[in-house]
Amino acid sequence: MSSVLALVLLACATTVETFPEDYATALCARTQECDRGAFEDDYATGMDACVADKNEAIAEVAANCDWVELKAKACLEELHNETCGELEDGASSCADAYSCDAGDIIDILLR
Predict the structure, then answer these.
(1) How far is residue 68's CA from residue 70's CA, in Å, rounded to a whole number?
(2) Residue 99: in which H helix or E strand, if any?
(3) Any idea where the domains of the chain sit in the sequence?
(4) How far apart are CA 76 and CA 37, in angstroms?
């Protein structure tokens, strides 16, 4: 299955339980694609290290916030649909995937 099809399916099928892993996987795949040098510098051991790192960050948000299903799905779709140039500053819709007063979610998610 192509990575494009896999990301589309993730957006459709994501749930409150699977979103952290889905988000981490999608973000890491796009980071590897769009900024390979930085990805390899940060995650020399590969994709699993990136996913674990991002999963840990989003778990912090998930533990303190309410999941917003439509916004979370939009986040995954944006990660899939945007060009690398458009994603340079991150997927802006991902900041709305959770509703909370825990500060700026995008900063936590993109650590």
Answers:
(1) 6
(2) strand 98-99
(3) 3-109
(4) 23
**Residue that has been written with the tokens 């952290």 in this structure:** 20
Tell the residue number behind the tokens 């439509």, with chain if given: 70
Comparing 111 with 36, which gets the higher pLDDT? 36
CA distances from 9 to 37, 53, 100 (A): 27, 23, 27
pLDDT at 68 over 50: yes
Angstrom distance (rounded) from CA 73 to CA 81 = 12
Which residue type sits at 64? N
pLDDT at 105: 58
23 in Cβ contact with 68 (< 8 Å): no
Distance CA 61, CA 50 (A): 17
The token duo for 105 is 């979610």
SS3 66: strand
pTM of this structure:
0.77
